[in-house]
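Here is a protein:
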Amino acid sequence: MADETLARAGLHFDELNKIRVLEPEISQQTGELKEECKDFVDKIGDFQTIVGTFIEVVDNVAKEVEKEKMKAIGSRNLLKSITKQREAQQQQLQALITERKMQQERLRIQYEALLKEESEQNEFIEQFILQK
């Protein structure tokens, strides 16, 4: 009965017979909630650690990908440059071939002209010898 009177006044006894303002059930639920909150905060801390590690790993991978991307772009540009150099070299060689063919043709014509002149001179010499 004294317990009921105290309960109406908002006072309660706990398991150690100490006077409390909260009901024992509410006090127990509050303690459980406190433990759950502590567990939740610990789990959030673990999650933040994992997320921090994950972000660090992703950043490192992104840096490596960017570095490899730049290497690939450099290699592609170098390949294009080499291709253009080879095309230019090929054009130079084609021009040199054309120039040499023209020189060969000029020399062939000159050779034929010299052969004709030699033939004419040989004929002249033969006629000169025959006239003596």
Q: What stands out?
A: Helices lie at 2-8, 24-131. DSSP finds two helices and two strands in the chain.
